[in-house]
Amino acid sequence: MDLDLGAVRAFIAVVDDRHFGDAAARLGISQQAVSKRVARLEADLGTPLLNRARGGAEPTDDGTYFLVHARTLVDLADRTVDLVRNRNRALRVDVMRTRVASADLIRRFHETAPDVEIDIVISSDGLLAGLPALTRGSIDAFISRATGDLGEIQALPAYLEPMHVLVGREHPLAAAERVPMADLAGMSAWIPGARRPETEWADFYRELSAEFGVVIDTSGPSFGWDDEVDRIAASRDLFTFVGERVRIPWNPGIVQIPIVDPTVVFPWSLLWHPRNRHPVLPRLIAHLRDGFRPYRPGREWLPPADRPACTR
Predict the structure, then answer these.
(1) CA–CA distance, 269 with 158 (Å, rounded to integer)
(2) How many CB atoms lie within 10 A of CB 124?
(3) Strands (E), 169-262
(4) At what angle are helices 20-27 and 5-17 packed, to 10 degrees?
(5) Reduced to 3 states, what is the DSSP secondary structure of residue 60?
(6) Residue 84: per-residue pLDDT
(7) pLDDT at residue 214, as a whole number
(8) Looking at residue 238, what is its pLDDT?
(9) Fold of 5-86
(10) Which of 142, 291, 297, 303 meets the CB 3.0–4.6 Å disulfide criterion with 94?
(11) Cα angle, residue 48 at apex, residues 10 and 40 outer, rounded to 5°
């Protein structure tokens, strides 16, 4: 017996709306058509699925049992259609911001694969937005720090980005060629972007603070990169952390200095949903896997939770 998906959809709509008329409005067909589809489904299954009354329709015991499988069937059919329709669309990658290393990683991938169409998605909520978007399929890949419970989402270490300090030319550190982490103990780093404690980068800086005694100042608000750079350039004591590949807005009053002993590295990972079948996704995964340089204990520092995935 072949089930009619249209009849299954009609049954689900009646259960959700409790009334054939409301279900018909949702499906964009007549109430009579909904009734015929549900009746045909009941005849095919050989059992009543709905109790019909003036107060509305309610599923029978068999209807309740069938409902779970009906939703799964319709969801699978919808996903299958989406997969076929989307095979030829551009790969959608969320890089969070265009000035940071995540965007640079995708830019370099595209240089090796100019035939690939890529849609860059910009969000600022990190995993809070990225994980649901991957599950929904609204994006194909996401680059961020992979930490905490990722659920079904898979992650691959992509790049350990060395961190630098950013200071104004009047800052005491401005003349240094390198800054040992020990020299930053007790100093206050201004990072307004870490105000939300639930984000993966705020967690990174909490770990950094606990390990090296750097105070993290999250006072704000933040008005964007240009404003932050201007404020640091004009200050004798403000400094912040930036990644080596961050594209800092040009300002003659800024000095960027590498951190050493150890080199602090921020772990970028590629995240994707295993159900995603975009044909370009395996190429991106292979590109980042092949180019990844593992964590070097003793020379670099990572939060302990990130070390197992980043060590080969």
Answers:
(1) 5
(2) 11
(3) 179-180, 188-190, 215-217, 239-243, 254-260
(4) 130
(5) coil
(6) 63
(7) 96
(8) 93
(9) Arc Repressor Mutant, subunit A (1.10.10)
(10) 142
(11) 50
CA angle 150, 109, 166 (to 5 degrees): 75
Rounded to the nearest 5°, which phi and psi values hold at 224? Answer: 100, 175
Say if CB 163 and CB 208 are below 8 A apart. no
Q: How many CB atoms lie within 10 A of CB 3?
A: 13
pLDDT of residue 76: 86
Q: Tell how strand 300-301 and strand 263-272 pair up.
A: parallel
Nearest to 98 by CA among 249, 286, 205: 249
Q: Which CATH class is domain 91-158+268-295?
A: alpha beta
Report pLDDT for 173.
96
* Count of C-beta atoms within a 10 Å radius of residue 18: 14
Residue at 202: amino acid letter: A
User: 240 Cβ partners below 8 Å, 6+ apart?
Assistant: 165, 166, 189, 190, 191, 228, 232
**Structural element, H or E, at residue 296:** none
Query: 160-265: which CATH architecture?
Result: 3-Layer(aba) Sandwich (3.40)
- What pLDDT does 88 receive? 65
Residue 28: burial class (beta carbons within 10 Å; 0-12, 13-18, 19+): exposed
The domain segmentation of the chain, as residue ranges, is 5-86, 91-158+268-295, 160-265
Mean pLDDT by 10 residues, the chain (312 residues): 86 91 89 92 91 87 92 84 69 94 96 93 89 93 96 97 97 96 95 88 96 93 88 94 94 97 98 93 97 96 97 84
Give the C-alpha separation, 8 to 12, whole Å.
6
Write the CA distances from 32 to 26, 45, 165, 174, 177, integer angstroms: 14, 20, 70, 78, 79
CA atoms of 52 and 60, how far apart (whole Å) = 10
